[in-house]
Amino acid sequence: MRTASFRFGLSLAASSIALFAALPASAQSAAQDEPAAVDDVVVTGTRTPSRSRLDTLAPVDVVTAETLQNRGTTEFAAALAQSVPSLTFQRPSVTDGTDSIRPATLRGLSPDQTLVLVNSTRRHASALVNVNGSVGRGSAAVDLNAIPTGALDRVEVLRDGASAQYGSDAIAGVVNLRLKQAASGGGAGVTYGQYLTTVEEARGERDETDGQTVTVSAWQGFGLGSDGYLTLSAEYLQRDPTNRSGVDPRAAAGGRVTARLGDPEVDQWTVFANAGKPLAGGWDLYGWGGYQNRDSESAAFPRLSDNVNNVASIYPNGFLPLIAITSKDASAAGGLRGQIAGWDADFNLSWGRNALEFRTENSLNATYGAQSPTSFDSGGLIYDQLVFGADFTRQLDWGLSAPVNLALGVEARREGYEIEAGEPASYNRGPLGGNTSLAGGAQGFPGFQPSNVVDESRDAVGVYADIEIPLTDSFTVAGAVRFEDYSDFGDAQTGKLSARYDFTPNFALRGSVSTGFRAPSLQQSFFTSTSSVIQNGAVVETGTFPATSLIASTLGARPLKPETSTNYSLGTVIRFGGFDLTVDAYSIDIENQIVLSELINRSFSPQVAGLLDPLGIQAARFFLNGVETRTRGVDVVGRYRLNTETVGDFDFTVAGNVNEVEVLKTPTSSSVLNPVPTLFARSRIETLQQGTPDTKVSGAADWSYGRFGATARATYYASVVQPGSTAASDFSTGDKTVIDLEGRFQVTDRIGLAVGVDNVFDEYPDFVPANLNSNGVVAFPFYSPFGFNGRYGYARLSVKW
Question: How many helical (H) and strand (E) elements, i.e. helices and strands, does the chain have?
Fold first, then answer.
């Protein structure tokens, strides 16, 4: 099926190119009367000034703030995924911290293989590493939702490998968040929405009205003197949880829904500032900063009244442990731009920090019996990053059709990572700890132990050179090389070659070949914990160990190495009048991909039991290299603008992505144990290959006429597989199409009102069959690329001044 979809994508691309390249000259001439193509100037993927979206040597999507805000969701990552065909944003649930810090994927690759920039400067990652059964397992990615849409002017998404230009992580591409720059004006908005849905799961049907969400946002521009700006943005969001679990069939459940599968409860506020001021001598001072505080609460698996780890005197009917996270995310940056000896120079310093504080609520430590607390401080994670950059650009006159653009630069980075222990009761074995049938620590999320505490850091320095040469008016070539050195594993070198040929003003071909890399994150290198992991429906006390630890090395781990990639792309740009079309095919080969190993259980062999029993755990896992993948796909993006005097203005967009991920090689164990444990099993392979849709197509129409406006959008998602330990235990989402509608009315020049419905027809992924859901918890696959919450209605009031 995946290969067939890829061939379909190639056929679609070839047909699109042939059709529009072959349009007769008369049709192209007639099109000149149509509105001019929207051709935004971009700064991502090129260091040549004033290069437009349709003139780039690699594909770049531009998503405006207005586009992001004309959505039902106020969650930035979800809104961006609706706008970019190759971006997917799942909504994992019952996966501990990943429920609250949810990652996005580009072209089906790992979330940490996409570099995120703010105003073209590297953004810091989250302190969380995803260790449970979600898409992106084993990654530590940037939390896109830490920046509110109200602070953004636009988002540029480079869909091409760019490690030689930007450094580590840019294997799948680059997301550049560009902040508002306003010296005057402002606006505010209030959005309210909730789910109005019928939940049809394997064991019954019920109506739900939940997930009530209120978002209040505002921004204001201030002048700094006569020529500077300061733009302030703020947002507050409060969201109630949703629940799409099914009826629990176990006798002690009494026919109830005992679990909570869905969006976490969230209460968050965010502030951002962006400023710039010209100085004497032609220099500009600029800077930005932001802070977000997010309190979220999600659920673990339920413990029924007859569970051995329940204490009836505390919870006579059983209990549902809750995992609460407070995420405090801070960032600041500043820089100077000017000229030095004919070079445009840019010096900048940026800092970011993400601190996660964990609490386990509505729980207990069974080894304390009736004296157990029910609320626990479970410890914390901290990641911080300091980056200095110096970039120099110069236009060189080589007697060609246009100046040659040469860029040179250096980047120095310091990263730090910490794990803080929780309170003793969150991880200890109490007075009843001699009973080996009882699990120690807080149920649902045991706290980090003193043995888990780490405080590690590393340094990295990179230098690059980047050149674009317009050989003729029609033919441009570009090249980039980069060298980086890391204090913990050594150096890496990457390169990129690109070219573009414009056959006519309406038709061009472009392509590139590049190498890339991603350094192992500090989170992957040093994360360690003891936690409750669900394996085949049972709770398994599991230790996660650094690859360099004695236990991990005995089980087959080796020190982590960088991931490396080779990227190829070939595409076309077609434009005339109000129409433009881009078609880009790509192939990405990745070696030494870093993954999280399988759980190696004590029951595997007496040798493994001898390693784990002294630590009081039942299984162990660790990070390792060794997965090789090949990703092939096609992106097609078409847009047409039509302005009429009688029925208004229309903006039509069709965007599609066909993507196939193939696992070519899996890790082989170097363990000294006999027999050798399996390090990477079938379910992990299938998650990489089928965990994101192989086909996603979205069509949207925006209409405006006087004070009225509307948006209609349909998005097709091919079926996604959420794999089990065997093929018989797999379940899938099915092929689904989701319809969204929004209507807008401008009450006055300053006041606007919008109402809409996302998922008008209450579409759900296929429910999980009853025989694969013995406890009712996972009633729907949380791998679903459009979520599993159903119909969502909303209203938005906006004011501008």
Answer: 9, 34
Instruction: Residue 778: name the closest of 87, 82, 91, 75 by CA.
Output: 91
- Can you spell out the DSSP letters for 683-749? HHHHHHHHSS-SEEEEEEEEEEETTEEEEEEEEEE---EE--SSGGG-EE---EEEEEEEEEEESSS
- Model pLDDT for residues 677-732, shown as the tens digit of each residue: 888 999 999 999 999 999 999 999 999 999 999 999 999 999 999 999 899 999 99
Q: Using the 8-state DSSP alphabet, how is residue 780 labeled?
A: S
Cβ contacts of 600 within 8 Å, gap of 6 or more: 555, 608, 619, 620, 621, 677
Domains and CATH numbers, the chain: 2-800 (2.40.170.20)
Give, for 166, the enclosing helix (H) or strand (E): helix 163-166
Which phi and psi angles does 529 have, rounded to 5°?
-165, 165
> Which run of H or of E encompasses 15?
helix 2-21
Token pair recorded at residue 153: 């002017």
Give the integer Cα–Cα distance in Å for 93 and 676.
33
Structure tokens at 434: 């001699």
Tokens of 313: 């005197």
Indicate if the pLDDT at residue 184 is higher than 70: yes
Q: Which two tokens stand for residue 58?
A: 């690699």
What secondary structure letter does DSSP report for 450? G
Question: Residue with structure tokens 């199409």?
Answer: 737
Task: Quickly list DSSP for 99-111.
Answer: GTS--EEETTS-G
Task: Round to the nearest angstrom and report the end-to-end CA distance of the chain.
Answer: 53
Give the single-character DSSP code of 682: H
Angle formed at CA 469 by CA 286 and CA 21, multiple of 5 degrees? 105
**Contact 541/551 with Cβ under 8 angstroms?**
no
**Owner of token pair 């071909």:** 509
Query: What residues contact 703, with CB distance under 8 A and at least 6 apart?
Result: 648, 649, 650, 651, 709, 710, 711
Tell me how far apart the alpha carbons of residues 649 and 634 are, in angstroms, rounded to a whole number: 30
C-alpha separations of 662 from 499, 567, 627, 694 in Å: 28, 15, 11, 11
Tell me, what's the pLDDT at 370? 96
